[in-house]
Amino acid sequence: MPALPRRRFRLSILMLAGCLAAMTALVALSPVGHAQQAVDNHTFDITLKGLRAATLSFAGEQSGNAYSVSGKLESRGLAAMVRKVRYDATARGNVRADKFTPTAYSEKADTGKRKSASVMQYRKGVPQVKSYDPPRDPRPDDLNPAKQGGTVDPLTALYATLRDVDAGQECKVALQMFDGRRRSQIALSGRNAEGDKVTCRGEYRRVAGFSAEDMAEKTRFPFVLTYAPNDQGRMRVVTITTETLYGTATLTRR
Question: Across residues 133-149, what is the average pLDDT?
Answer without folding.
Answer: 92
